[in-house]
Amino acid sequence: MSMMHASGVNDAAGAAVVPPTVSLMRWVLVATLPGIATMSYFFGLGVISNVLLAAALGVALEAAVLRLRKRPIRKTLDDSSALLTGVLLGVSLPPASPWWLIGVGMIAAIVVGKQLYGGLGHNPFNPAMVGYALLLVSFPTYMTLWAPPQELISSGLWAQITGTMPTAQLDSLSGATPLDAFKHKGEAILASEFWATNPLPDGTLSAWRWVALAWLAGGGLLLVKRVISWHIPVAMLGSVLILATLFYLSDPSHFASPIFHLLTGATLFGALFIATDPVSAATSRRGKLIYGAGIGALVIIIRTFGGYPDAVAFAVLLMNLCVPLLDLYSVPRPTGHPKSTRGEQP
Amino acid sequence: MSSAYDFPGGIHPPERKQRSNQVALMEAPLPSRVVLLLQQHSGQPATPCVAPGDRVKVGSLVAKREGMISSDLHATISGTVGEVSATQIVIESDGKDEWQRLPSLDWQQADPAALLARLNESGIVGLGGAGFPTHIKARVVERHAIHTLVVNAAECEPYITADDLTLRHYTNEVLEGAQIIAKLCGAQQIVIGIEDNKPEAIQALERALQHALPDSQPLAVELMVIPTRYPSGGERQLIKKLLDLNVPSGGLPADVGVLCHNPGTLLAILHAVRDGQPLVSRIVTLTGEAIAQPGNRWVRLGTSVKELLEHAGLKPSELNQVIQGGPMMGTPLLTLDTPVTKLTNCLIAATIDELPPPPAESPCIRCGECESVCPVALLPQQLHWYARVKDDAKLERYHLFDCIECGACSYVCPSHIPLVVDYHEAKSRIRLQRIEAAKAEYAKHRFEFRQARLAREEAEKQARKEARKSQQRRTPTNAAASSEKIDLRGLRIAHAAAKASVKKAEKTLARVAQEDPKQSLDDLEMQLATAQENLKAAESQLAQAKEQQAATAPSQNEDSP
User: Of the candidates A275, B118, B373, B478, which lies 20 to 30 Å from A126 by C-alpha distance?
Assistant: First the structure.
């Protein structure tokens, strides 16, 4: 039985092989650095404090549950998956979120979303998105207001510790994200008129674009290192672009442009870091393509017609729900089986 | 020519063939003692036909084929038979190395039946690893039209270079062996599939094919060089790659008109036919960092692995494990006190740095890498889930039995899950369950066999009695003869039916044995034996009836005129 292992040898063809699971998660952590750095450049240190707090809570909660479940703690924590969940939730929250908000989110993510299902490899839903979605529906005021770029004052960190909202963020629309602003522009105003009013604080739109590109850079690293495969990101971004283009062409005065959809909100971050979580994604290549395309479609549909400005978390969770079905119906035809059995479900 | 077709998946593990393919082929020293395992081929173990103390020469038959899927076994050194047990025969050498060969056969002139008989009595089995009896494989032509003989020289596993060296040293012999098999199975072309990492063998083949005389190579041979990618040497993968034919799931290459043979087997076939030399030795790759003189050796079957490796300069302090076969599909040897068999193509004496134990297993994160390398396009991680929870229905629906256990999935798994071990265990478990489920059926078959044997004995007894009777009475009494209406026609039909059912049982057995070499064949062998008993009974009844008729016919003739 196979005595050779890719991790113990160098691939003869010189091609990259998939890194071991333990380092897989570490690669994802490394790949989040450009995104985190860019975000904290534009939105202040509150991003980093979010990430640190969430990651620490993630590890602590995972260790606590592992102890209750009488599972090996050190060995399991070594896979860094709890750390990663913390980082991913941390960057999704508004900078300098109150500590209890992060705590509630991480409990939902690690305890409910992951460990209650059996830990790494057994969770049907993306844990970070479970936490995020819970927070979004439970504490919408805290979740939808982002500090305008470069305006986070040092009192923000204090607010995080005391558990209140940073005062700067209470200043009505000033803290909205571009998606949020566009969502609430109202039916009466045309898109061109809306943008002409300069609805966002200076630099907001470009800040979000830079952040999106930073995520793209990190995702590129993951693709090159073969930590993730291209199937899900390409399918998701493809369906976002196609649907957004269709809507935009049908009525450019009401619908946002495809570039706007691609470069604001969590589209790129979601496509490269969230939807690619292998545990909660479909397994076969065909399944992955359908899964990614489904997320992309849901993102556009919810952003355009739904009640929330962004939709990556809901889209991912909804498609997570479909994974068992996708896995059932996307079984590849093994070699030597006649074509007619293709539609046969296993 | 290279091929445009492809099989899915595949991996590129480090080849590590240089260690053994840079050294010339040598003879291993003659062992002073050999241990011949009775089971060194697929199917039933052979039955010893020598007793302790018997003198044997190299090539003397020491154990006979038992049942249909089995193989004869020959002494591999000259000397005295020592211990004969239920599992092995020991021969102590007299140091003389005296041979006992069969007469040479001219394969171009010889009758196919004579060639088949020669393969059978030479104990030839597939030397690539499965050990399937070659004469049974050659008889496939009785049931399938074969258009292509594929010479599987891909040798895709790392480390192994036995086929490479065989081709370099015995190019013409292998090609001639291929012609013999092609003639036997009526193939119209021979295709040699070889990976591009064996330039010397490829060159040797090209030269030999250019200079081949038309009468030594009557059939066209095509050399196809394919890119190195594991597991291109898998039978199905190679056939797909070379000929773009898909061997159906659960089927055989013969189902698409193809027969596959390994170069080593073809060489053994030629030796058996041309030189009358039974299978007593084979080429074994000795390699790994823990031996000082790696290389390929001609080794007498039954030679101790330990002696062989020690002669090749085994460094016990550096040795971590010895693997029989390749690092992907081979098995680690639990003890070195084990003999070389017909199936030993490679022995890797590995250090711990060379083939380190796999890192600790972590949970499956469903990354799907295993799926992208699976050469059968299965979903290994789904199989993994179902194997761990023993969901056999799901396992079969996800085509567990299509898995060729190549180990590509285990190789790439980032969580270091020993996937193939899981599949292997699941398969064994399901096979056992099938046997359990069919127990009543098997009991019925055993009962039928007993009935058939008793009936045959009765029929033979009857025949002897009749023969005695007819000798006693010179002229048969007319009354007795005429009252017993002899139903010759009915007996002929029964005889033909019995013959057909033997054929059918043989066909089923040959097919099942080749499809899944690990399956237990006891029940099918039993059914074949039953059919054979029935045939014997029918034969003796028919012979008896014919005799009676011959005896009564003249008397009737006397009456009628």
Answer: B373
For residues B259-286, average pLDDT: 95
Helix or strand (DSSP H, E) at B149: strand B148-153
Helix, strand, or coil (residue B320): coil
Q: Do strands B88-93 and B79-84 pair parallel, antiparallel, or not at all (unpaired)?
A: antiparallel
Task: Compute the nearest-CA separation of A234 from chain B (Å).
Answer: 16
What average pLDDT score do residues A174-190 get? Answer: 69
Verify that B294 and B267 share a domain, yes or no.
no
Q: Count of domains in chain B? A: 4
Nearest residue of A to residue B403, measured between CA atoms: A334
Q: Which of the four pLDDT bands, split at 50, 70 and 90, describes residue B4?
A: low
CB-based contacts of B244, cutoff 8 Å, min separation 6: B5
Residue A166: pLDDT band with limits 50, 70, 90? low
Check CB contact of A4 with chain B, cutoff 8 Å.
yes
What are the tens digits of pLDDT across the range B318-372?
999 999 999 999 999 999 999 999 999 999 999 998 998 888 888 888 888 898 8
CB contact under 8 A, B376 and A336: yes
Q: Which of B359, B371, B421 sits opposite A285 (nearest CB)?
A: B371
Look up residue B484 and give its DSSP letter: S
Among chain B residues, CA nearest to A119: B363
B128/B221 same-domain check: yes
How far CA A140 is from CA of A92, A169, A261, B534, in Å, comes to 14, 13, 21, 85
Shared domain check, B209 and B305: no
Q: Which residues pair with B74 in a beta bridge?
A: B61
Is cis: bond before B214, omega within 30 of 0? no
Which range of residues forms the domain containing residue B500? 425-559
- Does the pLDDT of residue B560 top 50, yes or no? no
Q: Measured between CA atoms, how close is A207 to chain B, in angstroms?
A: 33
Final residue belonging to a domain, choices B417, B439, B454:
B417
| Among B371, B369, B382, residue whose Cα is nearest residue B422 | B382
What pLDDT was estimated at residue A158? Answer: 60
Choose among B157, B155, B129: nearest CA to B408: B157
Contact flag A3-B330 (C-beta cutoff 8 Å): yes
List, for residues A48-60, the tens digit of each pLDDT value.
999 999 999 999 9
Residue A13 touches chain B, beta carbons under 8 Å: yes
Q: What is the pLDDT of residue A165?
A: 57
Verify that B217 and B305 share a domain, yes or no.
no
Q: Does a structural domain hold residue B355?
A: no
Q: Does A16 touch chain B (CB under 8 A)?
A: no
Is residue B84, in this structure, part of any structural domain at all? Answer: no
A29: closest CA of chain B, how far (Å): 16
The reply to whether B273 and B287 lie within a common domain is no
**CB-based contact, A330 to chain B, within 8 Å:** no
Binary contact (A17, B412; C-beta < 8 A): yes
Per-residue pLDDT tens over the stretch B505-525: 888 888 888 777 777 788 888
pLDDT value of residue B77? 95
Which of B361, B392, B417 is where one domain is finished? Answer: B417
Residue B82 lies in a domain: no
Radius of gyration from C-alpha coordinates of chain A? 21
Nearest CA in chain B to A118: B363
Q: B228 pLDDT exceeds 90?
A: yes
> Taking a C-beta distance cutoff of 8 angstroms, is the pair B152, B308 a contact?
no
B288: CATH: 3.10.20.600
Which is more confidently placed, B324 or B545? B324
Taking an 8 Å cut-off on Cβ atoms, the answer to whether A335 and B375 are in contact is yes
Total residues found in chain A within this entry: 346
Is B460 found in the same domain as B554? yes
Residue B460 lies in a domain: yes
Better-scored residue on pLDDT, A150 or B196: B196
Tell me how far apart the alpha carbons of residues B268 and B275 are, in angstroms, rounded to a whole number.
10
Note whether B497 and B385 are same-domain residues: no
pLDDT bin (cut points 50, 70, 90) of residue A283 is: confident
If asked whether residues B268 and B301 sit together in one domain, one would say no
| Residue B346 annotated as binding site | no
